[in-house]
Design brief:
The strands form 2 sheets. The protein has a 7-stranded mixed sheet with strand order 1-2-3-7-6-5-4, sandwiched between helices. Strands 11-10-9-8-12 form a 5-stranded antiparallel sheet, with no helix packed on it. The chain is an alpha+beta fold. The chain has 6 helices and 12 strands. The structure holds biotin.
Length: 271
């Protein structure tokens, strides 16, 4: 095939039980490990999600991995790492399992419902999450830890409180998936997207095109309160641009709920 040497997955270290693969990989990073190392775990006792949430899945069922990256990016653009990972996850689920993933800002991969009506409203249930954590030294991104969790071979019926919002790949395809094959494909997709990110390719347009919410009326629960408006765009720094009818605001963290579809034209509102 030619091309540059592989970065992501050039070395894979497998653990049985860890607290969190992100925490463990940070230790490798601090010892000076080159980028591309992947650590995986069968079980995480203290798996973490965004905004301080827990990420705990049944042992031996899923993909839980962290990847050490040292990209030539300014810290301001670290969100691009999450975006490129979301694109790689989406492409892998499409190609390997024939699913139709949609992305939810900032870091979720959803699967549309089969009946189409839910898909039309721009929502779906979460099957994967991404947690990118960075170390910044001066004005440089020293390293990033890209953590990815995909809900695999169990059924969300085990967790009735999560079932309205989350799903598993097994539930989505109707049978157990081949975890090793999926991991292999995911690492290859990540490697190819990461090569593009490193070479300065703009992945934002592709990310936008896979988002479920642009142009929709949304409610965003941010750390500072709940906001509503039109999800107008995603900025170059990864912020969600929310149009409340009079102003445009940039949001850097939050949980978005799509409220309804709209044809509202917001082009003449200024930032
Ligand atoms: C989220 O949806 O909030 C992000 C979830 C990220 C979970 C993964 S699993 C592997 C890695 N290790 C962790 O502790 N978290 C990430």
């Amino acid at each position: 095939m030619g091309g540059e040497a592989r970065i992501i997955g050039r070395k894979i270290v497998r653990y049985d039980q860890v607290q969190s693969t992100n925490d463990l990989l940070r230790e490798w990073a601090e010892r000076g490990e080159p980028e591309g190392l992947v650590v995986t775990a069968e079980e995480q006792l203290a798996g973490r999600g965004r905004m301080g949430r827990k990420w705990i899945v049944p042992r031996g069922t899923s993909l839980q991995l962290s990847i050490l990256l040292r990209p030539p990016l300014a810290p301001l653009y670290a969100q691009r790492i999450t975006q490129m990972a979301a694109l790689a996850v989406a492409r892998t689920l499409e190609h390997e399992l024939g699913l139709q993933p949609i992305l939810k800002w900032p870091n979720d991969v959803l699967l549309a419902e089969q009946n189409g009506s839910v898909k039309a409203a721009g929502t779906g249930r979460k099957c994967a999450g991404i947690l990118t954590e960075t170390s910044v030294r001066g004005d440089r991104l020293e390293y990033a830890i890209l953590g990815i969790g995909l809900n695999g071979n169990y059924t969300m019926h085990m967790y009735p409180e999560l079932a309205p919002l989350a799903t598993t790949l097994q539930d989505a395809v109707g049978h157990a998936i081949d975890r090793a094959a999926l991991e292999n494909a995911l690492l290859a997709a990540l490697d190819s997207y990461y090569a593009r990110l490193r070479s300065g390719d703009d992945l934002l347009q592709e990310y936008r095109s896979r988002l479920n919410m642009l142009g929709q009326v949304v409610r965003v629960a941010t750390p500072g309160g709940v906001l509503e408006g039109i999800a107008q765009d995603v900025a170059a720094d990864g912020a969600l641009i929310l149009n409340d009818g009079t102003t445009l605001g940039k949001l850097y963290a939050g949980d978005v709920t799509v409220l309804k579809q709209t044809r509202f034209d917001s082009r003449d509102v200024t930032l």
